Amino acid sequence: MVKEVVIVGGGTSGLILARELGRRGVVATVFESEKKVGIKADRASGILSASGLSKLGIDFSDAIVNSLYGASLHAGRRSLHVRAEKVQAYVLDRIKLAEICSREAVDAGAKVVTGKRIGPKELEQFSSEGKIIVGADGGLSAVARWAKFPPIEDHVLTFKALFEKSERLIEDEVDLFFSERFASGFFGWAVPYGKGTVELGIGTRSGSWNSAEAFRRMLKEASVREAVGEGKMADSKASIIPIGTRSVTAKGNVLLVGDAAGQVKATTGGGIIFGGACAMVAAKSISRYIDNGEPLERYDRMWRKLYGNDLSMHRIIHAYYSRAGEAGVEKLLWLLNILGMENFLSKYGDMDRPSVMVKRFFLRNLAD
Q: What is the pLDDT of residue 171?
């Protein structure tokens, strides 16, 4: 049985998969089209939950930019403030994180090849050689197109910029802004990077106005300007994020992981935690295929059994606030305040696993 795996895409999910395969004695080669891994990773925000990161086994300490304890959600004249006693999330340097993941993969025995774009010709060659091919090349995955996987139907366009020399008062909390005036089908955010730097960003549903225009509209809001203080815009980047999951992620000798599979939280567009967790499932599935001949298609069932419910709940929450608009979210924040959910979320909130929060909510009520 061939024990070689080709991973197309040197993002976090692909590199975690390569690390896990190397630790299982499977030869894995990662092909990254850019000259360095992570060179474009900072197009997306680097807010990652502390609980989720702890399960990925990454030594991410050198990539920490800031520690976050809470968040404020704003819609209309209402706000919901959530703050915990312990660190809930970290702001990470995404480029450094990718470099760390690359080193861990190489240390485990994987090969990382940069500056090499893989197209249909190379994929056909790999397939003819009996190699396992993994698409970890983002939501617009070339591997998925080549292998004719079902498309991802829903995407969000994002635009973000850093504001330096900001006088933001609270440097360990995030602000989220819901308003159809500028964030159609998504939201805006202000993330403190510490040392007077704030990231201001916005997501808008693809098909509406472009993300740069949405960003300009958001900047006109007084509450948004207050969140970034008098900082000066220093850098800006745009990206596209999948917020739907492919109906099939394994076919023949081809698997998809991370954004390529749509293993992304539809509520926030965050894909590192679930993508990395599913990459670990993929490593187990590939290892079982090599050692025992178990079908690779079992990977699809395995990751959905573990994480499918939570990803579905994220899509339901996203669908709600997308349809509700600013007035609907404003009413929801009012209701949550009336129900005392600020305290509950501060104590039991989970950024990644809404199913865990639901269980905690019902268990708490049963105990009362």
A: 86
Residue environment code for 323-334, b if the CB has 16+ CB neighbours within 10 A, otherwise e: ebbbebbbebbb
Q: What is the Cα gyration radius of the chain?
A: 21
Sign of CA dihedral 344, 193, 231, 38: negative
Give 86's contacts (C-beta < 8 A, 6+ positions apart): 50, 69
CA–CA distance, 327 with 333 (Å, rounded to integer): 10
Structure letter (DSSP) for residue 339: T
Instruction: Tell me what pLDDT residue 108 has.
Output: 97
- pTM score, whole prediction: 0.92
Q: For the packed helices 354-367 and 341-348, what is the interaxial angle rounded to 10 degrees?
A: 120
Residues 6 or more apart whose CB falls under 8 angstroms from that of 230 comprise 165, 166, 167
* List of residues 6+ apart from 176 with CB closer than 8 A: 71, 72, 73, 74, 187, 188, 189
State the angle between helix axes of 298-338 and 272-292 in degrees (0 to 180), rounded to the nearest 10.
160
Phi first, then psi, for residue 287 (nearest 5°) are: -60, -40
Q: Which domains does the chain carry?
A: 4-71+87-153+243-312 (3.50.50.60), 155-242 (3.30.9.10)
| Residue of 49, 36, 184 lying closest to 114 (CA atoms) | 36
* pLDDT for 289: 95
β partners of residue 114: 32
Pinpoint the alpha helices (H) of 220-271.
222-228
Residue 12: closest CA among 102, 115, 112? 102
pLDDT tens string 222-257: 888 888 777 788 888 998 889 889 999 999 999 999
Report the C-alpha gap between 242 and 274 in whole angstroms: 13
> DSSP letter string over 105-171?
HHHTT-EEEES----HHHHHHHHHTT-EEEE-S-TT-HHHHHTTPPPP--EEEEEEEEEES---S-S
* Sites in the chain below the pLDDT cut of 70: 1-2, 168-169, 206-209, 341, 344-345, 347-349, 356-368
Residues 63 and 93 sit within 8 Å (Cβ to Cβ) = yes
Contact 240, 159 (CB under 8 A): no
- The answer to whether the CB of 280 falls within 8 A of the CB of 55 is no
